[in-house]
Amino acid sequence: MKNLTDSFVSVGHWPSAGSFEFNTDILATNPINLSVVLGVLIFFGKGVLNDLLDKRKQRILSTIRNSEELRRGAIEQLERARVRLRKVEIEADEYRTNGYSEIEREKLNLINATCNSLERLENYKNETLFFEKQRAINQVRQQVLQQALQRALGTLNSCLNSELHFRTISANIGILGSVEEITD
């Protein structure tokens, strides 16, 4: 440590101007060399370092600006996507509502059509029953009439002579013809 302080103290004591020597004492010369190198670096490197720092600062600021612009663009896209999502949700609700109402309409139409078909079938059934009933009544009438005529003819044949018999048959044929016209 004494050598170190001696080197600084001896700075004030300069050897004669005629001699030049190398100081081989590393501990004594190292702080002096370092201070000279640092001074030169600071003096000449200050501009380069400032330029490098300014360039770095500009790159960082431009990156921040680009990031802000991208962020704003992403926020705008997000808002547009949200608006589109709301529109799509509204349309989906409308389709769903319209679909349900359409289903209900179709259901009511089907029920009404089925009811109408059942009413028509009931009317056809009633008409068929009425016509069958009328036909059965007409058949019974004809059979009763034929039996009555046969009995009357049998009675007349046994009781009447041929001329009276002929007039009665003619009158009955006339009556039967008018009855057949009525039933047709």
UniProtKB/TrEMBL annotation:
GO terms for molecular function: proton-transporting ATP synthase activity, rotational mechanism. The keyword Nucleotide-binding does not apply. Its main location: membrane. It holds the Pfam family ATP-synt_B. The keyword Protein biosynthesis does not apply. CDD domains: ATP-synt_Fo_b. Residues 64-98 form a coiled coil. GO terms for cellular component: chloroplast thylakoid membrane; proton-transporting ATP synthase complex. It is found in: Membrane; Plastid, Chloroplast thylakoid membrane. The chain crosses the membrane at residues 32-49. It is a single-pass membrane protein. Keywords: ATP synthesis, CF(0), Chloroplast, Coiled coil, Hydrogen ion transport, Ion transport, Membrane, Plastid, Thylakoid, Transmembrane, Transmembrane helix, Transport. Signal peptide: none annotated. In plastids the F-type ATPase is also known as CF(1)CF(0). F-type ATPases have 2 components, F(1) - the catalytic core - and F(0) - the membrane proton channel. F(1) has five subunits: alpha(3), beta(3), gamma(1), delta(1), epsilon(1). F(0) has four main subunits: a(1), b(1), b'(1) and c(10-14). The alpha and beta chains form an alternating ring which encloses part of the gamma chain. F(1) is attached to F(0) by a central stalk formed by the gamma and epsilon chains, while a peripheral stalk is formed by the delta, b and b' chains. F(1)F(0) ATP synthase produces ATP from ADP in the presence of a proton or sodium gradient. F-type ATPases consist of two structural domains, F(1) containing the extramembraneous catalytic core and F(0) containing the membrane proton channel, linked together by a central stalk and a peripheral stalk. During catalysis, ATP synthesis in the catalytic domain of F(1) is coupled via a rotary mechanism of the central stalk subunits to proton translocation. Belongs to the ATPase B chain family. This is ATP synthase subunit b, chloroplastic. It comes from Dendrolirium lasiopetalum.
